Write a sequence for this structure.
């Protein structure tokens, strides 16, 4: 079975990874942080979350999938105080129910000290 990779968009400075990799009908999406298209990182949690969702939708779309095709997501937060806000934003972005299975972890740090959130996921891609 072959693997289809989804690299960062041209001109986007990123670590050595694929944003997504598809094997069969499964799409594995790398941890997506809250960077904007210019690799800027907003100060607010809400703006970083919005960027994560935008980037998630782009990777899913390139693979022929949507947010409704997500099966499992892992959310990493650097502040426990953002969990309630994340749940509200998450419901709007990943809903309506049923939602994908989810794990939420609060971590000490992410690769950039200004990163407040990172989300990774697995989607089932039809066709």
């Amino acid at each position: 079975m072959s693997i289809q990779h989804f690299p960062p968009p041209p001109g986007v400075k990123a670590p050595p990874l694929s944003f997504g990799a598809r094997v069969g009908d499964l799409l594995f999406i790398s941890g997506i942080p809250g960077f904007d298209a210019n690799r800027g990182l907003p100060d607010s949690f809400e703006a970083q979350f919005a960027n994560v969702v935008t980037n998630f939708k782009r990777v899913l779309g390139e693979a022929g999938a949507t947010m409704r095709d997500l099966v499992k997501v892992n959310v990493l937060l650097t502040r426990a105080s953002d969990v309630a806000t994340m749940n509200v934003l998450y419901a709007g972005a990943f809903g309506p129910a049923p939602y994908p299975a989810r794990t939420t972890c609060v971590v000490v740090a992410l690769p950039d000290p200004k990163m407040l959130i990172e989300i990774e996921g697995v989607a089932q891609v039809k066709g």
Summary: The chain has two helices and six strands. Helices lie at 45-62, 83-94. Residues 3-124 form a domain with the 60s Ribosomal Protein L30; Chain: A; fold (CATH 3.30.1330.40).
